[in-house]
Amino acid sequence: MQIDPGLFQENERTQPTVLGRQSLSIGPLDLESGARLEDVVVAYETWGTLSPARDNAILVCHALTGDSHAIGWWSRLVGPGKPIDTDRHYVVCANVLGGCQGSTGPASLASDGKPYGSRFPIITVGDMVNAQKRLIDHLGIPCLLAIAGGSMGGMLALDWTVRYPGSVRKAFITASGAAHSAMQIGFNEAARQAIMRDAKWLGGDYPLDEGPEGGLAVARMIGHLSFLCEEAFTAKFGRRLQGKSHYEYHTGVEFEVESYLNYQGDKFTKRFDANSLIVVTRAIDYFDLKTLKRSTTEYLFVSYTTDWLYPTHQSVELNAMAITAGCRSSHVEIDLPFGHDAFLLDADVQGPELCALLARE
User: Would you say residue 1 lies in a domain?
Assistant: First the structure.
């Protein structure tokens, strides 16, 4: 099996940057839980130029641990000459509410000058979308040409199409679903517990420079295992030992895959906040889309044969839901041995499908 060079470079592909990042204060936001955030900031980036008719805007929604820098983590689909062409389209991407890359989240300062920490309220995908809508209104975009997202980003894109019907012409939803299964919730809960059982979590009120890094690293290892697949791990590591030719019979690192997961987990703690991971995973576990009947959007759903985190049947169900709602919709299953992360790496197959979606009148 040929290994994609980007498959095992998760932290490198998603390394955040403040270059080009802008911030917008959208004021107070009433949340679906009944709580209220008094002063919400949305961090975002844009590329390209909004047309005089204001009809060429595409909103890109990031996955769980992404940020506003879409031309970085989705570089194979977003950029000059790419399917989401920054030479032709006005592309917008915002860090989600609850995140830790510029948008208001648990690590942000509350009105008392201290981080929210445990005081940050539970949020939903709908709350994230409502914050994004204020950004899009501020940018003067009456209707999006398209919205695109994978995994959690696909959930945001779906919610947009029913929460604000008529505001999105086309939706590209890749490797996502209408609601988490028990297994998907279970993966997220295991990650949350890894953080919350770290002695340094302190109920969520840890110093930002001395947080529960051990628990957060383990949480990332759990997530990373679910993002890939057996074929990819076997091809990359097999049962090879780390820097030696025989077992040493101890509890430290013996296998290459152990070293790799430790490296990925430790590096992740340098760019992500533990409370944000708890808050955002809880939000996507709550997401439960029952119908697309309010939508007027055209959909393209993509899934991957080796994606066991968001399996193909969830995209099949979404496609059927869209057709039942009277929307134009199609589904494409792609055979690639990259697991869930295929949606971030594949441009050869989903790229042309996305181009065709955007080209259709």
Answer: no
